Automatic annotation (TrEMBL):
PANTHER family assigned to the protein according to its UniProt record, in alphabetical order: ALKANESULFONATE MONOOXYGENASE, ALKANESULFONATE MONOOXYGENASE-RELATED
One Pfam family here: Bac_luciferase
UniProt entry keywords in alphabetical sequence: Flavoprotein, FMN, Monooxygenase, Oxidoreductase
Signal peptide (UniProt feature, chain positions): none
The protein's name in its UniProt record: Luciferase-like domain-containing protein
Taxonomic source organism: Dactylosporangium darangshiense
InterPro entries on file: Luciferase-like_dom, Luciferase-like_sf, SsuD_RutA_monooxygenase
Residues covered by the Luciferase-like domain: 17-196
Length: 262
């Protein structure tokens, strides 16, 4: 059982991550929404700061919008982040949810097909740069030309995808190490159907689930643990708990029960 918690919603994300590490969470995560009227942090900068201020907890992007950054640059960024953090990066990627943010930042708005094609190509480029001496890739969306990148990662950096549509789910099963959808974007029965698509291609994919506080039952720790354990086939959870008191309660009261259950 892998259990993480969201950070980046308070003014002290480093303190929130240090609390999560002290409580025994496995990872912290943050989303990638650079445009908006609410005060926020740029996700990669913030997570790098967190990694430098913690020692054991893993750090996950949940998830980077591929159209925001060159996949080749993400490959370099990820290798550096993972190396400097002692191998603690989980690289979460997605096709890009918010068309309004793309438009606001002058990036152009990809079609749904372009988002999925771009996601597939991005993973191929990232993995290629991590493994090949010099990568030439001529895709429909992304390209590299005899691109060397050193050093290579010291281990396989896990790539988790936040995907929902049929084509994107196939990309997840074919190319990813993990799948991280959100409860609320799809009901539990639909999530199980999607999970079957992904694991039907690759049974070894880690199935993680984002769960907001509103999606958790109100009740004693045993009831919350039972609810989470009831999502058959999911072996990792990312908890969207914005209140530090909720994080403290979950870490001291619910997390030990999940550990006992395996």
């Amino acid at each position: 059982m892998i259990v993480g918690v969201n950070v980046g919603t308070t003014s002290d994300p480093v303190g929130d991550a240090q609390r999560a590490e002290r409580l025994g969470f496995d990872f912290v995560s943050a989303s990638d929404h650079p445009s908006g009227t609410a005060s926020s942090f740029e996700v990669w900068t913030m997570l790098a700061w967190i990694a430098a201020s913690t020692s054991t907890i893993r750090v996950a992007t949940r998830v980077l919008g591929v159209p925001y950054r060159s996949p080749a640059m993400v490959a370099k960024m990820a290798e550096t982040f993972d190396r400097l953090s002692g191998g603690r990066l989980i690289l979460g990627l997605g096709g890009g949810y918010s068309d309004e943010e793309f438009r606001a930042f002058g990036l152009g708005v990809p079609t749904a097909r372009e988002k999925v094609d771009g996601l597939r190509e991005a993973i191929q480029i990232i993995r290629g740069l991590w493994s090949e001496p010099a990568l030439t890739f001529d895709g429909r969306i992304h390209r590299t030309e005899a691109a060397p990148m050193e050093p290579k990662p010291a281990h396989r950096i896990p790539i988790w995808l936040g995907t929902y549509g049929p084509r994107a789910l196939r990309v997840t099963g074919e190319l990813a190490d993990g799948w991280i959808p959100s409860l609320g974007y799809a009901p539990p029965d639909e999530l199980q159907r999607m999970r079957a698509v992904v694991t039907g291609i690759n049974p070894a994919v880690t199935c993680a689930l984002n769960v907001h506080r509103a999606g958790l039952v109100d009740g004693p720790p045993e009831a919350v643990a039972e609810q989470l354990l009831g999502f058959a086939g999911f072996t990792a959870y990312n908890l969207m708990l914005n209140d530090p008191e909720d994080v403290e309660w979950f870490g001291t009261s619910v997390l030990p029960l999940l550990r006992q259950a395996g």
